[in-house]
Structure prediction request, 184 residues.
Amino acid sequence: MKLILAAGAVLALALAGGAQAATTVIGASQASECATAAESGRSDRAAVALCEGALANEIMTSRDRAKTLINHGVMMMRQLNWTAALSDMDASIALQPDIGEAYVNRGAVMIGLRRYQEGLDMINRGLVLGIEDPAKAYYNRGLAHEGLENARDAYLDYQQAVTLAPNWDMPQQQLLRFTVTRRE
Prediction:
C-alpha cells in the first residue's frame, strides 16, 4: 500500500514565515522584558524598543545577547522585515552557535523569503541542537516541505507538530488542507 497525499493551495507559505521560537532571558532587565514580549507574541513599537534598548545599553552575557537578538529577530519576522530578522539570527549564531532557536528562526526567515531548502536545512540543524518548543520547528519544516512540493513530508511534519502540541491550532489547520488516500 502507498500513501498518496495531496495538499491544497499553500496559503500558509504566504503568511509570516511560520511559527517563531522566542527564547527566555532571566532577570529584571530590558532583555528579560524583551523576552517576555516576544514569547507573548508582541512586535509593537514598545516591544521592539525593549529589545533594542537591551542590545544598545545593557551589559549581558554573550548567551543572553544572542537570545535577545533572537527575540528581536522574532519581532522583525512578525513585521515581515526579513532583512532585519536574518541579520539578527546571523548575529545570534555568530555569538552562540549552539542555540537551536536561532537556526529554527533563521529557517523561518528563509521560508518567508521562499528559500525553502535553506529553511529546511536550518530547521534540521536547530532540531539537532535542541530547542524548547520543537512543535514550531516541525510546523516550519512542514511549510518548507510544502514549498519544495513534498506533500508527504509536509503532512508528516504537521502531524508531528500536532503530536507535540495538541492544543496548538496552526498545524491542525494545515492538516485540514490534505487529502489522504491509499493506493493498492
In short: The beta strands are 2-7, 178-183.
